Amino acid sequence: MRAARAYGALAVGLVAAACTAPEKQLEVGRSYQSVTYTDTTDESFSRSDRAITGVLVSHYGDSVRFRIRTMRDALVSGVDLTLHPASNRGEGLSTARVGMPKGTLPMLESSVAFLEQLLRRARVVGGDSVSLPVLLLGKHATLNVFTVVANGSDSVMLLGPDGNPAMGLHLAVDPQGRILGGGIPVSGTRIFSVDASR
Asked: Does the reported pTM lie above 0.70?
């Protein structure tokens, strides 16, 4: 009986220690720039074993801070967002805490931090063509299905429900699945790694 109590106390202690362990930083301060028509957005983010945190800053002055709460198997439990409107708008900041339906991944415009989480999830699922449920974040969040198609070891396509490659996002990736750059042919949207150009 004493052994059982001791084992129970040890198990509780180990669980408590695991819950209070500090976050382990995996990547720090990665930077990207995306250009769509006349709008340029700068992005920087860091990744730990529990979350991806970063900021998107439009050249119009608006910015969005985000924290993607990650789980095992490259899944996401939710996203915390803080919108800082440009000062000339005279609007206050607003915050949102968005929960993810089970198995669904978030996307926020062409944010690399969000896109890479989709790629990590596709790798976990496995296969050359993986369809994933996605919640497009914004004023009116919408659910959709996107397909990640491997195009050799150094590039992938992210296709929308129409499956049209011209409308899809074409991405160059490194061996770890980190995005090096990319674009959408039909809109001319381009994504650049600021780190790669240094």
From this structure: yes
